[in-house]
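look at this:
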Amino acid sequence: MIAPTQVILDKTETHVIDGIEVEFYMAPDSEAPAEMHMFFPGLKPDEVAEALHLPAELEREWSCRGYYGALKHKAKAIYQRYLSWYDANPVHLDPLPGAASARKMIAYMGGAEAILAKAREDYARGEFRWSPLGPAR
Protein backbone atom coordinates (compact mmCIF):
# COMPACT_ATOMS: atom_id res chain seq x y z
CA MET A 1 0.00 0.00 0.00
CA ILE A 2 1.06 3.58 -0.47
CA ALA A 3 2.24 5.24 2.70
CA PRO A 4 -0.35 7.66 4.14
CA THR A 5 2.40 10.26 4.42
CA GLN A 6 3.23 10.15 0.71
CA VAL A 7 1.75 13.18 -1.03
CA ILE A 8 0.49 13.01 -4.59
CA LEU A 9 0.62 16.47 -6.07
CA ASP A 10 -0.01 16.14 -9.80
CA LYS A 11 -3.29 15.35 -11.55
CA THR A 12 -1.69 12.10 -12.69
CA GLU A 13 1.21 10.29 -11.07
CA THR A 14 2.75 6.85 -11.35
CA HIS A 15 4.24 5.05 -8.36
CA VAL A 16 5.71 1.58 -7.91
CA ILE A 17 4.16 -0.07 -4.87
CA ASP A 18 5.34 -3.53 -3.85
CA GLY A 19 6.79 -3.98 -7.34
CA ILE A 20 3.52 -3.11 -9.13
CA GLU A 21 3.16 0.06 -11.18
CA VAL A 22 0.11 2.04 -10.08
CA GLU A 23 -1.25 5.10 -11.86
CA PHE A 24 -3.20 7.68 -9.87
CA TYR A 25 -5.63 10.13 -11.49
CA MET A 26 -7.36 13.02 -9.80
CA ALA A 27 -11.04 12.14 -9.48
CA PRO A 28 -13.29 14.47 -11.47
CA ASP A 29 -15.85 16.35 -9.40
CA SER A 30 -14.45 14.93 -6.18
CA GLU A 31 -15.19 16.44 -2.81
CA ALA A 32 -11.55 16.65 -1.88
CA PRO A 33 -8.43 16.95 -4.05
CA ALA A 34 -6.99 13.92 -2.27
CA GLU A 35 -9.61 11.62 -3.84
CA MET A 36 -7.96 9.85 -6.72
CA HIS A 37 -8.60 6.94 -9.00
CA MET A 38 -5.85 4.43 -9.49
CA PHE A 39 -5.33 1.51 -11.78
CA PHE A 40 -2.67 -1.05 -12.48
CA PRO A 41 -1.50 -0.89 -16.10
CA GLY A 42 -0.95 -4.30 -17.61
CA LEU A 43 -2.99 -6.19 -15.01
CA LYS A 44 -6.44 -7.64 -15.62
CA PRO A 45 -9.21 -7.45 -12.99
CA ASP A 46 -8.55 -10.95 -11.63
CA GLU A 47 -4.82 -10.21 -11.35
CA VAL A 48 -5.48 -6.93 -9.52
CA ALA A 49 -7.83 -8.75 -7.14
CA GLU A 50 -5.20 -11.40 -6.37
CA ALA A 51 -2.44 -8.83 -5.84
CA LEU A 52 -4.42 -6.50 -3.58
CA HIS A 53 -4.15 -7.03 0.18
CA LEU A 54 -4.93 -4.79 3.11
CA PRO A 55 -2.12 -4.11 5.57
CA ALA A 56 -2.41 -6.23 8.74
CA GLU A 57 -3.48 -3.25 10.86
CA LEU A 58 -6.41 -2.54 8.51
CA GLU A 59 -7.42 -6.21 8.29
CA ARG A 60 -8.03 -6.11 12.05
CA GLU A 61 -10.36 -3.11 11.77
CA TRP A 62 -14.05 -4.01 12.02
CA SER A 63 -15.04 -1.40 9.43
CA CYS A 64 -12.67 -2.93 6.84
CA ARG A 65 -14.06 -6.46 7.01
CA GLY A 66 -15.52 -8.16 3.95
CA TYR A 67 -19.20 -7.64 4.71
CA TYR A 68 -20.88 -7.66 1.29
CA GLY A 69 -18.08 -9.49 -0.49
CA ALA A 70 -14.37 -9.80 -0.09
CA LEU A 71 -11.75 -7.22 -1.04
CA LYS A 72 -11.25 -9.24 -4.25
CA HIS A 73 -14.88 -8.70 -5.25
CA LYS A 74 -14.70 -4.99 -4.56
CA ALA A 75 -11.44 -4.59 -6.49
CA LYS A 76 -12.96 -6.20 -9.59
CA ALA A 77 -16.11 -4.08 -9.32
CA ILE A 78 -14.10 -0.86 -9.04
CA TYR A 79 -11.95 -1.90 -12.00
CA GLN A 80 -15.06 -2.51 -14.09
CA ARG A 81 -16.63 0.79 -13.01
CA TYR A 82 -13.67 2.94 -14.03
CA LEU A 83 -11.88 0.91 -16.70
CA SER A 84 -14.69 -1.18 -18.23
CA TRP A 85 -15.03 -4.93 -18.53
CA TYR A 86 -12.86 -5.12 -21.65
CA ASP A 87 -9.44 -6.63 -20.96
CA ALA A 88 -7.82 -5.86 -24.35
CA ASN A 89 -8.27 -9.45 -25.54
CA PRO A 90 -10.28 -9.33 -28.81
CA VAL A 91 -11.62 -12.85 -28.18
CA HIS A 92 -13.61 -11.44 -25.25
CA LEU A 93 -15.49 -8.96 -27.46
CA ASP A 94 -17.78 -11.68 -28.83
CA PRO A 95 -17.49 -14.81 -26.66
CA LEU A 96 -19.48 -17.98 -27.19
CA PRO A 97 -22.48 -18.34 -24.88
CA GLY A 98 -21.90 -20.46 -21.76
CA ALA A 99 -23.29 -23.80 -22.99
CA ALA A 100 -21.53 -23.65 -26.38
CA SER A 101 -18.29 -22.61 -24.71
CA ALA A 102 -18.57 -25.45 -22.18
CA ARG A 103 -19.14 -28.09 -24.89
CA LYS A 104 -16.09 -26.84 -26.82
CA MET A 105 -13.93 -26.75 -23.68
CA ILE A 106 -14.94 -30.29 -22.68
CA ALA A 107 -14.04 -31.54 -26.15
CA TYR A 108 -10.66 -29.75 -26.04
CA MET A 109 -9.86 -31.32 -22.66
CA GLY A 110 -10.45 -34.90 -23.74
CA GLY A 111 -14.04 -35.39 -22.63
CA ALA A 112 -16.03 -35.33 -19.42
CA GLU A 113 -14.39 -38.37 -17.76
CA ALA A 114 -10.87 -36.93 -18.20
CA ILE A 115 -12.00 -33.63 -16.71
CA LEU A 116 -13.71 -35.29 -13.75
CA ALA A 117 -10.60 -37.37 -13.01
CA LYS A 118 -8.41 -34.21 -12.96
CA ALA A 119 -10.99 -32.35 -10.86
CA ARG A 120 -10.97 -35.15 -8.27
CA GLU A 121 -7.15 -35.03 -8.15
CA ASP A 122 -7.25 -31.26 -7.58
CA TYR A 123 -9.87 -31.66 -4.86
CA ALA A 124 -7.75 -34.31 -3.12
CA ARG A 125 -4.80 -31.86 -3.14
CA GLY A 126 -6.99 -29.16 -1.59
CA GLU A 127 -7.13 -27.00 -4.73
CA PHE A 128 -10.73 -25.99 -4.10
CA ARG A 129 -10.62 -22.75 -6.08
CA TRP A 130 -9.97 -24.72 -9.26
CA SER A 131 -11.96 -27.88 -8.67
CA PRO A 132 -15.73 -27.39 -8.49
CA LEU A 133 -16.21 -30.94 -7.22
CA GLY A 134 -16.66 -32.57 -3.89
CA PRO A 135 -15.30 -36.04 -3.11
CA ALA A 136 -16.14 -38.85 -5.57
CA ARG A 137 -19.47 -40.51 -4.80
